[in-house]
Specification:
alpha/beta, five-stranded mixed sheet, 8 helices, disordered N terminus
Amino acid sequence: MGHRRLRLSGKPRILILCEGAQTEPNYFNWLKFQNRLTSVVVRPPRGRQSGPQGLLKRLKSELKRDSGWDEVYCVLDHDERTVEIDIFKTDLARLNNRRASTRIEMVLSNPCFELWLLLHYEFTDRPYASLPEGSSACNGVTNKLLRHIPNYSKNSIDYLNGLVDRVTDALVNAGRLNSLEFREGSEHLPHTDVNELVARLLKIND
């Protein structure tokens, strides 16, 4: 438990575990740099541990290696994997019940993280779904995002500095989107929890 007493500047030690190897770690490392969040650690996946169950294994391994995290956030895409996500959610709840000292949260985007990036530029509440010819729901979001960031790709970081003055817009748009979830047919609405994590990180910086 020594780690918990040695926090940098008295700020909470936060671990962000990303399911994605590029887009999410790039974004959170950029946000960390912009806001000098020295007590925040961002980790992309290593090796072959993929999907929600791979993320769960990584989470358990990280907690075993270092029990001093105050908060851990697991960032993943829904990507039309309802059953896998539900299992992950249940496993996370079980883990949270056993670990009073660390708060563990799922940060889910439906259909994918690109929705959060799109919300920096515009509000959207249209349902995104796979098309019969094989185009995924995430492709629909990415195609819309490309109108704002023509050079966007998962391994690119060039577009990130263009988001500096737009983070507040994204927070507002995501809050508005998530408030619509109680209306009829809401299970088909896009959704993101990333705004809650970003708001938390910005609050630490205040």
